[in-house]
Amino acid sequence: MLRTALGQMEVIPGRPDLNSRTILDMIEEARAQKAEIVIFPEMAIPGYLLGDTWEQRAFLRDCEEYGKSVVAASRGICVLFGNVGVDWNKTGDDGRVRKYNAFFVAQNGRLVGGEKYPYPFRIKTLHPNYREFDDTRHFYSLRKLAQEMDMAVEELLQPVAVEISGRCLKLGCILCEDGWSEEYNVKPIETIHRNGPVDLFINISASPFTLGKNNKRNRVFSKQVAAAGVPLLYVNNVGIQNNGKTVYTFDGYSTVYDADGEITDYCHPFSAGLKIVELDLSASAKKRPCVTVPDDRDIASIYKALHYGASKFLSAIGMKKVVIGISGGIDSAVSACLYSTVLEPENVLLVNMPSVFNSRTTRDLAAGLAQNLGCWYTVMPIQEVFEYTVKQIGRTPVVNPNNNSEFNLNVSSFVSENIQARDRSARILAGVAAAFGGGFTCNANKSEMTVGYTTLYGDLAGFLAALADLWKHQVYELALYLNEHIYGREVIPRKIIDLVPSAELSPEQDVDQGKGDPIVYPYHDYLFRAFMEHWNRATPEDILTWYTQGVLEEQIGCRPGLAAQLFSSPAAFIEDLEKWWKLYCGMGVAKRIQAPPVLAVSRRAYGFDHREAQNQVHFTSGYQKLKRELMKEIG
Amino acid sequence: MLRTALGQMEVIPGRPDLNSRTILDMIEEARAQKAEIVIFPEMAIPGYLLGDTWEQRAFLRDCEEYGKSVVAASRGICVLFGNVGVDWNKTGDDGRVRKYNAFFVAQNGRLVGGEKYPYPFRIKTLHPNYREFDDTRHFYSLRKLAQEMDMAVEELLQPVAVEISGRCLKLGCILCEDGWSEEYNVKPIETIHRNGPVDLFINISASPFTLGKNNKRNRVFSKQVAAAGVPLLYVNNVGIQNNGKTVYTFDGYSTVYDADGEITDYCHPFSAGLKIVELDLSASAKKRPCVTVPDDRDIASIYKALHYGASKFLSAIGMKKVVIGISGGIDSAVSACLYSTVLEPENVLLVNMPSVFNSRTTRDLAAGLAQNLGCWYTVMPIQEVFEYTVKQIGRTPVVNPNNNSEFNLNVSSFVSENIQARDRSARILAGVAAAFGGGFTCNANKSEMTVGYTTLYGDLAGFLAALADLWKHQVYELALYLNEHIYGREVIPRKIIDLVPSAELSPEQDVDQGKGDPIVYPYHDYLFRAFMEHWNRATPEDILTWYTQGVLEEQIGCRPGLAAQLFSSPAAFIEDLEKWWKLYCGMGVAKRIQAPPVLAVSRRAYGFDHREAQNQVHFTSGYQKLKRELMKEIG
User: Could you tell me which residue ranges the CN hydrolase domain spans (chains A, B) (predicted)?
Assistant: First the structure.
């Protein structure tokens, strides 16, 4: 039996001092529990999402030093951990000192595994450079090293031999993406196994939570493990890390796969701690019972990630209090409920900021919500300053000082709407938050973010957009989940859920008359998702093709028959499609550039993993041809 | 003689329809001018900085189609151009369809060069994945392809043979970074030459302007060309492209290097057009006279890039009018002058927004500036709404609806300062801009951006931060340059240049008493630059090391003796250093996440090339040791 400890630690990005302290404590704990081997995640010492901090040589030296302290602590126990491996004598492709995303194996105060290998650590082979990952910018992969050494990368994929309790064990040491090799022509698990034999695979990861990823990992890893017939331990960190525009939660979910690829144990998600696992690596090992891993694609998983992410983000930036503008609408209500699961009521301040366009209905709903949550509440109307601003802008003469010509600016109703939105956020909420000693939240959802149906410096402002990775229908789902499962009572009044979604910035958005947003969420949520989240991103050409083929709803996943119901003609369908595509590629981009960080839960959140430029809107020639044909048929 | 046309075209990113139109027109022009060969830049059809548009299959098909129209137009002329090369049967590392950054050679309606090569186009070998470049995310490099094919990359680096006027010419076809191979272990020019013979090298590029880059290119390219003894044509595009957070200008500067590596001709920077060049490729070629390329590191180059960039950005986003808040200070004055070189006076509106803290001095200077520029001008004071806001926030009771306890928020003087800044931008300027039918500018400079000495939704707001890649001392330089060289008169009143820089948000920032910003620009500009721009980014550990060694000023480039003059003791030096480092890594990051796009001129601008995370501030153990020693010496 091999007594193993999975070190599912919280990694604080950029703090090798704190992380090595955590590791040293966990090593002590593992030793006390008689573990023979203890495993920590990828980049456990520096953290993973650090932006360009990797360019600071002093930081690299620091990580090396703290790494040495971990190696020194490995007396009597085998310690496996991720850190940056630096070759001070070589450069990367950018000419800076060469860095590897590395896997260290330490035993009795020394590094193990450097025999017949260019370094005393193993190197990550596959570097993800898609999604939120940026490995290629900073690290030199084993693939590049092999090419430089004029070798096949396969020759370098060898197990590490360690002696544990008098027995030689061959470990297949891989890092994160090395286990996700489907799309690569290099297959680390398969190759190391072929170069083996291997007794145990160990995948150390720094892998953010996104919906459905664990389910997929279990499928992908199980298959490879079963093919190799060798157990695998997966160790991932918890905590949050961000790359500026997007905040990722790390759920850990460290997992034990047996030689058949079945899961026999796992660590609780979003929970730091050491887990002891007894492994029988002998040929005669008795089959252990399998466990079932919960599905991670439901609203409960979303809630868990958002709750954890918001909580950790607040502590990471040292924010203890939040201010939330509540309109009586669904987004701000869900936001208020979410933060109320994270902070004590005395640290949450809800602010309602009515103008004449806000109905009694929504103002009462806002007050009711505040009462249900029991947090601080205040009403600060914007009407007076709004009117003052409209007058100041419209009545102050604009002059040409050289010829004394002058004119007055015209404040249209559209301009007035945005004045209200900015007055709420930039004038009141920002001031209130500063006076309260905290930050104010951005309550925008993903549907609004997609097409810029938000006001810059208005409702798009805030220190974090915690709901901006949820489509509107998911915001509703979350509302119901919060009421039913978290609060166990109707903390969000039912009427907020039933009300037509509206910005209430003009008489045209009167909720009491059932008037509201121009976005028809049951359809547009799915259209926007096709633009934004589909792996092969849909464009108007794809959408129109599906529409003409009668498979649109099936392809985008909305309710069958919806398009026909909403659009009386192909011309109306096309008009709607072009309008939103232009907003998504145009004003939406301009606004997202200045939007707050988004808390990610989906497979693709706005920010670093949705790279975009403020470029001109383009319709492909294929689209234009389809459109012409469709219009001709009608004409 | 080979009659060659350099197609220094303006590339519109994301518009293959427009770009292929430009190419077709230029081919016609080249043909009319009897050119035998015409060359267009890298990614001339799709554009280069497109974010994740590369994931849209319809867009890829579109680029292919437009590419075919260019190939079809190559009757009687050899056409060289960059486009995306798609292999629909293979995938990239991300599992999406495989894309190459490709070099196409077309002649008589057909592609040339596919013999003994896996594709009918050449593939970029070296993929920059540093700075603002993101090639690895989207494209499969020749290095990866070679590894997949189990070949040495060198075997694939072969010239392309074309027949021109009955003579076989061997062209060394490379793309951009392939010419910048110093840091790579693959050397495309050297290798293709060795695999040759080669008659002519052609480097097609999409290379943004940054200060000093052309000077460096000329050194790097000349050296390789001289070693090979073969002439090289460098063709780069003009226009602007952006990646959301950062806007890059492309200066073209297409260049002819003779067989000795000397420059015999070049295209005017920032100017689109076809240039005809006669090349003698025979062994007995007579040496042509060399030309001198102007230095591109001076303030004139900065001005040229900013003027071009601002102008092109306005037309790219369809903005015809701008509103500029002018305080009577230097940044807004330079911003107003810059935009006045781009737009007619009737499309520029300057707004002065005084509170009681704004001196008569600066208000008069603002009015004087407006008069000098002859654009629209208005004064909209913020005092009333500012006072109203302070009262509204401070006097509206905050209640707990459950127990009716209540309290009042306290609006401190610091909170008041930011209220003023936001009132100016989010209330007045945003409203005025919308009513005027344009956008409002962000006038922040790089020094402020570095440490977040700006107010979010206040002076950090705007549609573009045109001066945010200039250190404060460069803003002054630009002011002098504008007066002297662009306007030829004192359009920026001398007093604005001489005045102490100040935010004028409190009595502590009274310019008439010589009080102003906490940043001592002659020192901090250089300290911040060391943090941010140095290739090996400096951290407090480096700074303190240099300080103790007495080489600080030399290392960071500021005036000798300045540190001793500013800081009476090491303790004072350390306090200052830690204060700004914390702001740079802390609040500065949070603000930059929501900052407007920055117009880049330096080797490193904020945005996509300064990747950063909202992480905890870290001081390395090396720094802490140095600090302890230094403080002990004193104690």
Answer: 2-281
